[in-house]
Amino acid sequence: MDGGLKKTKIMNKLEEIVQRKKIEVAGAKRNTPIGELEASPLFRRQTISLKKNILERNTPAIIAEFKRRSPSRGEINSKVTPTQVAMGYQKAGATGVSVLTDMVSFGGSNHDLIMLRQHTTVPVLRKEFIIDPYQVIEAKAIGADVILLIAACLEPTQLKELAQTAQEQGLDVLMEVHSEEELETHLNRHVSVVGVNNRNLKTFEVSIQNSLDLADKIPNDFVKISESGLKTAEDIITLYKAGYKGFLIGESFMKNPDPGASCAKFIKQIEQLLNPEAIL
């Protein structure tokens, strides 16, 4: 397929998702007004900063994801619960956990995040197609500490407004980019963490080269993380040396019967590469 057609296809898919989200959010506003969200016990809890947690580490920070399925792979793991996975990731030493709350594309739900929140003390990232301030308030009300804002889905002014709303609520903001152009147009002072997605939107290919290419383009006052296609401890070390502090990993862990054990094994492999003589 021609590169231009591929890009058109994925951009049309993103537009389709955004239109669906507008309908979903309108329904959520009718069912649960903002005042009701703000009255929830979780809304009043003190949030935990993912940015701070990453910066306090002197080794690569793994943000481990709970992910039932994806549009590209289909079902990944439907046998484990958010509770099992949250406890497993925390025991493994994950710096943060991520959970997809989109039902249509990923089989997720707000309930998944609530369950994760109850069984972990590390920051929780709500991975969602956020397009409306209502979703930011909703994220805090269900126990999130961090929200994802995808540059490809949002206009620069829209992303800035959403990031500012999140910051005012004590939430960290992970801005996801795929290209240098998105960095130039969307980056703003309300963003806490910049995540580079290693999936090329023009070709669909996944390569850590995308993170390597953008490493020096991200100002050093933003925490840098790499997302997608991170399969080996060697990949993590390469990116860590390039300036990335955090690494968002989902499918590599979730495709195993025990995602927590898989995460623990991966973190140990990283430690061995960083300090081989310390682990005999």
N-to-C order of helices and strands: HHHEEEHEHHEHEHEHEHEHEHH
- Biggest sheet architecture: 8 strands, parallel, barrel
Q: How many angstroms does the end-to-end distance come to? A: 50 Å
Give the helix proportion (percent range). Answer: 40-55%
The geometry reads as globular
**What is the total tally of β strands?**
10
**Tally of separate helices:** 13
Low-confidence stretches: none
Strand order of the largest sheet: 1-4-5-6-7-8-9-10
Q: Radius of gyration from the CA trace? A: 18 Å
Look at the helices and sheets and give the structural class: alpha/beta
Strand content: 15-25%
Give the averaged pLDDT, no decimals: 92
Describe this protein's structure:
The structure is a single chain. By secondary structure, the protein is of the alpha/beta class. It has helices at 3-31, 34-38, 50-55, 82-92, 103-106, 110-118, 133-141, 156-168, 180-186, 209-214, 233-241, 251-254, 259-274; strands at residues 61-66, 69-70, 74-75, 96-100, 124-127, 146-150, 172-177, 193-197, 223-227, 246-249. It has an eight-stranded parallel barrel, surrounded by six helices. The chain has a two-stranded antiparallel sheet with strand order 2-3. Helix 11 crosses helix 13. The longest helix is centred in the N-terminal third of the chain and has 29 residues, at 3-31. It starts with a helix and ends in a 6-residue tail after the last helix.
